[in-house]
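Data card: per-record layout.
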Amino acid sequence: MSIKNNALLVSLTVNKPQMTQKDEKATRDAERANNAHGAGQFRKDLYPKHLVGPILTVESSARAYIERTTYMWSRGEYLLPTAKFMEFTERMGKFQLEFDQCVTAFLNNWSNVLQQAEAAQGALFDANAYPDLTDLKNDFRFRVQYRPVTDAHDFRVSLQEDELDALRHSVEEATRESMNAVLKEPLQRLREVVAKLNEVTAKTDRVVVVKKTGATEARPPIFRDSVVDNITEEISLLHAFADILPDNILAVAKNVADTVPHPQQLRDDPAARRAVNLQTTALLASIDAMLED
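The structure for this 293-residue chain is written out next.
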């Protein structure tokens, strides 16, 4: 089936005011003190990091969510399966609300922001470096954009035939390159999470000292549920693209799913750990062979 009917492109744009600024005087002083002219520049943080931290954290979390639930298409654009659209938009809406709330809290605390900035910067503080509060508010923006996957048949423009052929060729080439990357990314990401499972199942029992008695005892290695949960998430995303992915990729995903036990089984059963380690070693070899093709 066509990729256009099963996926769309999503991008996130987050605008923020200038967070750092070159300090000319500090730069000149450092150059003179070190006899190093034109060697670099001193940049100061305009806002205390702990005060803008919540805003930056929301942005970072939103971008991490996009990367986790989509495949890279081109710089700044990600391929989202249409089956995940409602779930995705709901979560991004929550990120936007969090972002707006953090910005509001930051602006409502503006006098404290300036006081702490002045305390941190000392003689480097310059009140003129800061915009008007209204302008500053307009500098913050969180925007999610969606668009269809473009192919050579999407153009409705008035061009000469040779110009239109060149345009079609350009679009086809760009789409082909992005599609080739999309076909490899599920395998690459699946390999990463399988490799982690392979790594943890290779661990042996730990020798720990019992605090009360001072005696030593063997305990199983620590297994976090996330090792298995991450595999489940990757397979779920891969299945959302089932209509556009080759059968061999879906087959290896099924093999991975059939291999993964419950995390508690890995904690309790050394034989299960050894078996999973052997199985994941074979799966990694199979995935590597597919990536080399």
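Known properties of this structure: The two ends are 23 Å apart (CA to CA). The mean pLDDT is 83.

See the next section for split statistics.
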